[in-house]
Each structure stands twice: as structure tokens, then as C-alpha cells.
Design brief:
The chain is an all-alpha fold and 216 residues long. Helix 6 packs parallel to helix 9, helix 8 crosses helix 9 and helix 10 packs antiparallel against helix 11. Helices cover 75% and strands 0% of the residues. The chain has 11 helices and no strands. This is TetR/AcrR family transcriptional regulator.
């Protein structure tokens, strides 16, 4: 969703123009307006301050319009977040593992800490602690799909011969992105480029430099 300069800076110039035009007619415009309104209200008022009534008023639509697509405000926020994540968190392909991972982890850290979508994610994680059914939906809707995206640089590196076959992708992804989520959600420590680049350097040392030093 287009929600100001912070998100545009995180996701790139094409994101800022996302809602211009009317490719899908008034219905799609209304849907996008609802998603944007929900995110804006969450940032302004916090999770408990977001209501269906408030979203409808901010988006300029009737509540009945909202209920055609979603049952709860949490459903709206999750849809908004999933859309943002798919657009902003697909890793680049520079043809080389190191720049791919550095760019992706920097983007992930920015997305989680400086964008409205990151605020939505933190709120959804908090809500999921009290609703097991929603937690399962969040895992399948975002976490599983994001792990697939996070794996792309490693998979491409295996295909290029930069990494060995048989790599435990799940374990390596946990080592890469786990510390970022831990700082964002638990310790609130900074996750700047020095930190994320260090995670990449550690992986490269283990998987590439370490392999070179092994005896024949």
C-alpha cells in the first residue's frame, strides 16, 4: 500500500505509484482504499484503536463493502501486510550470492523497522500470541511464503555452483533472518547494515571459506 515516504523509500519508486490508475475498476479501488486505511489507522492509533467503523470512514466506503471481503479487522491487516511483503521482500538477483544476501537482509530489516507494514507485522505477531487459529493463518500466509522468498538467493547460488548441493536451506535461513526477527520483536536492538552484513559475512565464511580450507 502507498502509505507515505517511508514505505516508498523502502520498497522503491515503483511502489509509490502502486495505486494510481484503475486496472480493476471501482471494486479494486475500494479494496485498496480499505487496506491503506487499516494500515494508516494502526500506525496512528495502535491495534486496539483500529475498528471496522473507523476503517470504513477513513476509506470512504460502507461497512457492508468491507464485510464482503473480510470478517474482522485482523483479516484486513493481514491482507494488507501480505500484499506489502510480496512486493517489498522478493530478493534481487545480481548474479552473485554476497550482494544478493546483503541487499535482501538490509531490505528486510528496513521493512520490519521503518515501514507501516512493519508496524502491522508487529501488531499481528502480538495478536497471534492470543489466538492460535490466527497464528496458524499467519504462519501459512506469511512466514511459510517468506521463507520461500528468503531461500531464493541460496537456491540460485547452489545452481551457480557457489554453494554445495544438499545444503540445509531451512537451517541456513534461520541463521540468516532469525537474528533480525529476534531484534525486531524481542530486544529492540538496532538492525542496521553493519548487523545484517555481518550475518551475511558469517554465512559466507562458514559455507564458502570454510569449504575451501577443508583437506582433500
Amino acid at each position: 500500500m502507498e502509505r507515505g515516504s517511508t514505505v516508498a523509500a523502502v520498497a522503491g519508486p515503483e511502489r509509490a505509484a502502486r495505486h494510481h490508475g484503475n486496472r480493476h475498476g471501482r471494486s479494486e479501488q475500494a479494496r485498496q482504499a480499505v487496506l491503506e486505511a487499516a494500515d494508516d489507522l494502526l500506525v496512528e492509533k495502535g491495534f486496539t484503536g483500529v475498528t471496522i467503523e473507523g476503517i470504513a470512514a477513513r476509506a470512504g466506503v460502507a461497512k457492508q463493502t468491507i464485510y464482503r471481503w473480510w470478517k474482522t479487522k485482523t483479516d484486513i491487516l493481514l491482507d494488507a501486510f501480505l500484499q506489502d511483503a510480496a512486493e517489498a521482500l522478493t530478493p534481487p538477483d545480481h548474479g552473485d550470492l554476497a550482494p544478493d544476501l546483503r541487499a535482501h537482509l538490509r531490505q528486510l530489516a528496513l521493512f520490519l523497522t521503518r515501514s507501516d507494514a512493519g508496524a502491522v507485522f508487529r501488531a499481528l505477531i502480538g495478536y497471534a500470541q492470543h489466538d492460535p487459529a490466527f497464528a496458524a493463518v499467519l504462519r501459512s500466509g506469511y512466514l511459510d511464503e517468506q521463507r520461500r522468498r528468503d531461500s531464493l538467493p541460496l537456491e540460485r547460488a547452489v545452481q551457480r555452483g557457489q554453494l554445495p548441493d544438499g545444503l540445509d536451506m531451512a537451517a541456513e535461513i534461520d541463521r540468516l533472518v532469525g537474528p533480525i526477527y529476534h531484534r525486531v520483536l524481542v530486544t529492540a536492538e538496532p538492525v542496521g547494515p553493519a548487523f545484517t552484513d555481518g550475518l551475511v559475512d558469517d554465512l559466507l565464511h562458514r559455507l564458502t571459506d570454510g569449504a575451501k580450507s577443508e583437506p582433500e
